[in-house]
Amino acid sequence: ILSRLILREKQSLPVYFSLIPIIIGVIIATVTEISFNLVGLISALLSTFGFSLQNIYSKKSLKDISIHHFALLALLAKISWCLFMPFWFFYDGLDIYNDTKYHTHNRAMKILFYLSIDGVLNFLHNVVAFTMISLVSPLSYIIANSTKRIVVICASLFILRNPVTTTNVIGMSLALFGVMYYNKAKYDQRRAQYKQAIIPLVRSEPNLHKLNLDIIRINHPDAELTSRHHPILHTSGPYYNGFIPNYASQSYKDI
């Protein structure tokens, strides 16, 4: 919806239909999770909305400004640091400074290690994300990001040993089916657009008796036309892709 409103991107009906099983599957897999929390769900929805806006305006910036996606990432990283550094300092920085248990060498090194690992992984994630945004549409990237939620749930089952229900599995399976259906719909849409681009849209005239020489007389009024000249296609309607009908088998040089 946001891509349609902001970027004016139009998709085919199968692409829009493929979003239905993805949305329903993610909702089922999320709501039926044992550790479901309403506040967490609302926060995740708001985060998804902001994430979608970021992807759309990042794509719009890449097109309108013609900036490289790595340069855009570096610029946004600087702005984000300036905006969120005060919040981190007041919410986490002061707690770390005032809590004496964080002052030990081992504890401080452990925190620094985890923060460094998180920063490196998040940086790599953003590099891959902005590279994908520069290559595909925001909708395709958001669909790929939706599958990440299914991967996170599956990883929590194996790593954290979280319990899983049958409804959970059904929701994840439905979302994965929607992703496969979306990829197939996008592939068919690209093939249709490619065929439409290489096939000229011209009007044909099967009845050769209706052919006349009107365009030749208009373009070359001084030319003396005889019956030996081949007539040209009748132009009763518009022509596309710059196609202008000419002789059936001759050029004006043959006159």
Characterise the protein shown here.
This protein is an all-alpha fold and 255 residues long. The protein folds into 2 domains: 2-198, no CATH class; 204-255, no CATH class. 68% of the residues lie in helices and 0% in strands. It contains 8 helices and no strands. The chain has helices spanning 2-7, 13-31, 38-64, 69-98, 105-135, 138-159, 166-198, 214-219. Helix 2 packs parallel to helix 6 (138-159), helix 2 (13-31) packs antiparallel against helix 7 (166-198) and helix 6 runs antiparallel to helix 7 (166-198). The longest helix has 33 residues, at 166-198. It is globular.
Shape: globular
Give the number of domains. 2
Low-confidence stretches: 207-211, 227-255
Tally of extended strands?
Answer: 0
Mean pLDDT across all amino acids: 72
Which radius of gyration do the C-alpha atoms yield?
30 Å
Straight-line distance between termini: 59 Å
Strand fraction equals under 5%
Tally of separate helices: 8
Largest sheet: none
Oligomeric state: single chain
Structural class: mainly alpha
**Helix content, binned percent:** 55-70%
